Amino acid sequence: MASPSISVDSKDFVQANQDLKDLEELREQQIRACRDVITISKKIIYAVHRGEMDIAQKEIPTIKKALKSAGDKSQDTGMYTVAWQEYVEALAYYHVVADNKLPTRKDLGSSTAEYLMGLCDLCGELVRRGVNSAAKGNTKETQRMKELVERIFGEFLNFDLRNNELRKKADGIKYNLNKLEDVLYDLKIHQRS
User: Fold this and answer.
1) Residues 90 and 116 in one domain
2) 91 with 120, same domain?
3) Spatial contact of 104 and 131, defined as CB atoms under 8 Å apart
4) Would you say the pTM of this structure is higher than 0.85?
5) Residue 13: helix, strand or coil by DSSP?
6) How many CB atoms lie within 10 A of CB 93?
7) Do 19 and 80 have their domain in common?
8) Which domain holds residue 48?
9) Concatenated DSSP letters for 97-124?
10) pLDDT value at position 155?
């Protein structure tokens, strides 16, 4: 007696193939949206550095729309987290300069890890602003940026960070703080000369 053949549902494999194609398309859409967020965040940051606050402000709805179209973490592209960090960095920098306020996680709608990593990146922009201000003779603005980086650094000291990406970025805050302290020290030395 012959053994019965094993039943295979070919339609299920066809559907599985379509599901993979659909997932890949969603993944590609997310990557494109995340690239848009990253590009727009750079536009906002550079506009703020140039003092073009109206241009930066006009980009805020655009970056929010791009971030919304990025979906969620389910696509696991890796770019999603980077896009959020860039978003936090850009909007935090804008609000620090425009409103003299560091926005909260809630203000930005961000997760804790992405918010904190974005703040680490923000410190680099604050250093740049401080150095540029010093070059223009605006030591008060340099001092303000140093105080903000110092405050962020102090807050980060309260965290028990593991040896991961956030820890590495957080370690960079101290370097940024030292850079601003050096700039202010050099200014004081030159003023005394």
Assistant:
1) no
2) no
3) no
4) yes
5) helix
6) 25
7) yes
8) 13-105
9) HHHS----HHHHT--HHHHHHHHHHHHH
10) 96
